[in-house]
């Protein structure tokens, strides 16, 4: 009886803060806050047999980008700086040579692409090209497509393409991606500049 | 006057610290939720390139990392300075890549396998020869989804600068 009446002594919680601090410090040390980000790409599958007759692509529909072992760019037989590449690529994709693309704003130059669907960017680098330069070139080419899509979204929907929700606006995103299909083809690297 | 005298005599009251554990716990929970354990001990130095068109890698469990770069200073007397590949915790050769990918794929749930992404974390000074070899091996191993790990540049100037 006396036992039941006795009050349970309070647990001393004074060291709780110490324990919590210890755990906190452990997590502080082991944590890495950097979220992984990068350029997503898809590699082409290896084909066992080469396609006998690859569908012919007209020269005007190919935008060649060459990068040598000194990280210099040769775009459509012309020496270019990396910060000019995006505008040049956009001009090529958006050229609308055959007039079939209604939303394009290109100049319709006869030496440039027919329409965005036919336009292909061909990228070739040397084995001596630095990875940093390669990523920069990739980034500019992807950015060229993204900028065009952005413009298209602004005009057709009055909204920002980059700000769209991948789930909510799935259909719209699909349509925009279709308007400017990303076609970047990578050739096997050369080995000239060793 | 008497009032002022009284105030001077009084000692400062102790700061109430009873809410301290609560604050610490709050921080603790934040870090526990936000934390990702450091998985590997990097043996190669990786100074990532910068890019603007980057996407966040969702679902870390589907991502497999391939590191490439020069060995760090403490490994240099043994492995030299030539850029190498690191898989998990060890240096690897290009021939190890294919079995590694297969093994990683086997370890994942069947429905997740097609979504497996290979993240290439390479130093920006690495030559494309090595990266191309990696890419060829990945194609052979049928791992087509890749990601070039990059950092967001501070401004456009940093993006185009020569040392990037």
Percent range for β-strand residues of chain B = 15-25%
Question: Main sheet of chain B?
Answer: 5 strands, mixed
Number of distinct helices of chain B: 6
The first-to-last residue Cα distance of chain B is 71 Å
Strand content of chain A: 5-15%
Poorly predicted runs of 5 or more residues of chain A:
none
How does CATH name the architecture of the domain at 60-148 in chain B?
2-Layer Sandwich
Largest interface: A-B, 47 and 56 residues
Largest sheet of chain A: 5 strands, mixed
Strand order of the largest sheet of chain A: 4-3-2-5-6
Helix % of chain A is 25-40%
- Main-sheet strand order of chain B equals 4-3-2-5-6
Give the C-level CATH assignment of the domain at 60-148 in chain B. Alpha Beta
Structural class of chain A: alpha/beta
- Average pLDDT of chain B, rounded to a whole number, is 82
CA radius of gyration of chain A:
28 Å
What attributes does this structure have?
heterodimer; A: 194 residues; alpha/beta; 5-stranded mixed sheet; 5 helices; 14% strand; elongated; B: 164 residues; Nucleotidyltransferase, domain 5; 6 helices; 34% helix
Describe this structure in words.
The complex is a heterodimer of chains A (about 190) and B (about 160). Helix content of chain A is about 35%, strand content about 15%. With about 190 residues, chain A is an alpha/beta fold. In chain A, a hairpin with a 5-residue loop joins strand 2 and strand 3 (about 75). The longest helix of chain A has 27 residues, at about 130-155. Chain B is an alpha/beta fold and about 160 residues long. Chain B has a domain at about 60-150: Nucleotidyltransferase, domain 5 (2-Layer Sandwich), CATH 3.30.420. Chain B is built from 6 helices and 6 strands. Chain B has a 5-stranded mixed β-sheet, covered by helices on one side. The longest helix of chain B is centred in the N-terminal third of the chain and has 15 residues, at about 20-35. The N and C termini of chain B lie far apart (about 70 Å). The model of chain B has no long low-confidence stretch (mean pLDDT about 80). Chains A and B meet through helix 2, strand 1 and helix 4 of A and helix 2, strand 1, strand 5, helix 5 and strand 6 of B.
